[in-house]
Write a structure and sequence with these properties.
Oligomer: single chain
Order of helices and strands: HEHEEHEHHEHEHEHEHEHEHHH
CATH superfamily of the largest domain: Glycogen Phosphorylase B
Strand order of the largest sheet: 7-6-5-8-9-10
Largest sheet: 6 strands, parallel
CATH topology of the largest domain: Rossmann fold
Radius of gyration: 21 Å
Number of domains: 2
Distance between the termini: 20 Å
Strand content: 5-15%
Structural class: alpha/beta
Number of helices: 13
Helix content: 40-55%
Low-confidence stretches: 283-287, 289-293
């Protein structure tokens, strides 16, 4: 099937964003199109499964040094790996230098001087978000609270009773999540790679309440060790962490600065240049030993 696909769609370069097709495409190209470059683009901040390591891959484009180290442990030659960052829309970086007060006024918040806590769990409103949101709303924190439920309409309906004019907002899927992140003093969320990359681009301090075991737990370590956020699993620990940080603006400022240092603006542009406008993709030796197959 992969051979027919390549025959029906002639290409100058093949790009894979998942480890499973990397394996298939690698072996097909080695047999049928050895001169056609295969580039693998990692889509997580840290975790790179062993299936990414395939002998036919010319170049790997990954998000972090931690992801690069994972590939090297899987047998990939270091020279084949480039750290480019995880792509996010330009608007996340563009809004990073806009004053919070300005963004809050743009969002229509009644008190743009009052701190804002933003709680979310990606575009699908991951289950535990409900318990976290209820705990934050009940805590009477010295802040406004906005909960974004994404495409989870049922969750939004269940949380509607929490709404308090000027204090608690419950939103569904929003197109301007970059503005909500910039308006926030703290982002309370799970450790999904896309949300974390967006938060780092904006420079918002993170309180992480959940992570998918194995897949996302390394992301927690990355954020905490960099000083860009804290790990506070469960509603009670989340509330305590949020309350502590709301009372410690210097700690929030340090976390914001470290988040910005961890961000990699222009990742999408770097990937595009590597694929179509940058230096030629090297040919020659395999990216990892074929014996690993």
């Amino acid at each position: 099937a992969a051979h027919r696909l390549l025959a029906d769609h002639p290409a100058d370069v093949v790009v894979a964003f998942h480890p499973v097709p990397v394996q298939t495409l690698s072996h097909v190209l080695i047999r049928t199109e050895p001169s056609l470059p295969l580039v693998a683009v990692g889509t997580d901040l840290v975790v790179m499964h062993a299936f990414w390591a395939a002998p036919g891959v010319r170049r790997y484009l990954v998000a972090t040094e931690a992801a690069r180290a994972r590939l090297i442990r899987h047998g990939v030659a270091p020279a084949r790996i480039e750290v480019v960052g995880l792509p996010v829309r330009h608007r996340f970086h563009e809004v990073a230098d806009v004053e919070r007060r300005v963004v809050r006024e743009r969002l229509g918040l009644e008190d743009p001087e009052r701190p804002l806590v933003l709680a979310m769990a990606g575009g699908v409103g991951f289950g535990p978000l409900e318990r976290v949101a209820r705990a934050l709303a009940a805590a009477e924190l010295p802040a406004q609270l906005a909960v974004v439920t994404g495409h989870n309409r049922r969750l939004r309906e269940r949380l509607q009773p929490l709404v308090r004019p000027g204090r608690v907002w419950v939103e569904g899927f929003v197109e301007n999540v970059h503005e909500w992140m910039r308006a926030a003093d703290l982002l309370v969320t799970k450790a999904g790679p896309a949300t974390l990359a967006e938060a780092l681009a904006v420079g918002v301090p993170l309180v992480l309440w959940g992570a998918i075991p194995a897949q996302e737990t390394p992301n927690v370590r990355l954020i905490v060790e960099a000083g860009a956020g804290v790990w506070a699993p469960g509603p009670r620990r989340t509330v305590r962490a949020v309350a502590h940080l709301l009372g410690n603006p210097l700690a929030r400022a340090r976390m914001e600065a470290r988040a910005r240092r961890l961000a990699r603006p222009g990742a999408a542009d770097r990937i595009a240049r590597a694929l179509i406008g940058g230096a030629p993709i090297p040919q020659g030796a395999s990216s990892c030993p074929s014996t690993r197959r």
